[in-house]
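seq as requested:
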Amino acid sequence: MIEPSIVSNASTAGDERPRNEYPVRAIGDVLLPVVTAQGSGTVPMFVGGCTASERATRALVVLHGRLRDADAYLRSTLRARAASSAHDDATLVVVPQFLASADVEHHHRAHADFLHWEWTAWMGGADARGPAPLSSFDALDALVAQLADRSRYPALREIVIAGHSGGAQVAHRYAILSAAPEPCARLGVPLRFVIANPSSWVYFDSLRPQPDGGFGPADRAACPDLDDWKYGMRKLPRYAAATQDATMLEHRYIGRKVVYLAGERDCDPAHAALDRSCAANAQGPHRLARARAYYAYLRARHPQLRHTWFEVPGAGHNAEAMFLSEPGIRALFGAHATIDAARAADQARGAGGADD
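struct tokens:
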């Protein structure tokens, strides 16, 4: 265990760096070892909820956004739990933290074997800069394997991997590339994915939304990287070296349990954290448009699609608003979970947690 360090990441006068390019204030005090043939490293985590491993029946893995503020995401998720009919259930909440190189450099007390990435490379599953070239998806594989281990969590019945914004990009792409759901299902611990307000999506061909509401070939001459990962299926990351068949990956993804959450007001084309690259802009002008288009795209390709879609009324680009909503509660804690208005109002008064 390590004791978390606290530092300010407020900008100084004249410092115009993006918000995500400051060291994190806190590093998680629970350590996840990640060991593969590529090497090994450690990912810090924040943990809450039902931490008694013998009693936990659901593991809720929440993925932070671009600020890497895993502590804020833990607080937001626990507020959602407290506001729901699941407030006293046996849900374990785990928030792994994908550190930037600057985080490790700043926190001198941090372990030397902490995996660390370029600022946002972990969102697409790229390999860490050190201490070994491991993907954020390798880390999730290690965490899922630990949670599905019956000797550790004998009562576990479900693993939910949920993300907002940058974390939703991780959840979406991991759901496409990971081979973990099938062995987990055989162990009686199915995986479910919750994807809320990502900046971009993975398309399985070169069709993109058109002004008339349909789909047509995108202009690859104007946007040469349109079909490259993390927007398409070309140039997949090293993590996917053994599974390069795009058709197989698509059909596997379609068969998985996926819930989409889209904020009704997440429609600002100038949002500071919105991906405005050529490949992202080809998917729509803002997150809500991109989410609607992607869901329509999947339904057009797979009329029997069983993924679930919710638009969250009144919610913008804010994890608190998304997860402290009726659809958010159901997505995180199960279809039978409900929100208690009085408890939700009480939790909202103490809000101010995760957004990016």
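The CA atoms of residues 193 and 258 lie 5 Å apart.
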